[in-house]
Design goal:
Largest sheet: 3 strands, antiparallel
CATH class: Mainly Beta
CATH superfamily: Transcriptional Coactivator Pc4, Chain A
Strand order of the largest sheet: 1-2-3
Number of helices: 1
Strand content: over 45%
Protein name: Transcriptional coactivator p15 (PC4) C-terminal domain-containing protein
Helix content: 25-40%
Keywords: DNA-binding, Nucleus, Transcription, Transcription regulation
Number of domains: 1
Number of strands: 3
Pfam family, one: PC4
GO molecular function, one term: transcription coactivator activity
Family: Belongs to the transcriptional coactivator PC4 family.
Length: about 70
């Protein structure tokens, strides 16, 4: 996504999560910050299924703004 925003798949407390998070740098290493969201597989599946609707809403918004 960018140097300080990343999407990672990780395991936390025995659960696989998709995390979209801001990272910060300390002593030359990157660490996950507090800003972000972690989704379970089920939550990620629901989110991914809604992406076409989100894309459509963005297209409609752009169309209205360019008129």
């Amino acid at each position: 996504m960018s140097n300080n925003r990343k999407v990672v798949v990780q395991q936390f407390k025995g659960k696989k999560l998709v995390s979209i998070r801001e990272y910060y740098e300390k002593d030359g290493k990157q660490f996950p910050g507090t800003k972000g969201i972690s989704l379970t597989k089920e939550q990620w599946t629901l989110f991914a299924a809604s992406v076409p609707s989100i894309d459509e809403a963005i297209k409609k918004m752009k169309t209205r703004l360019t008129k």
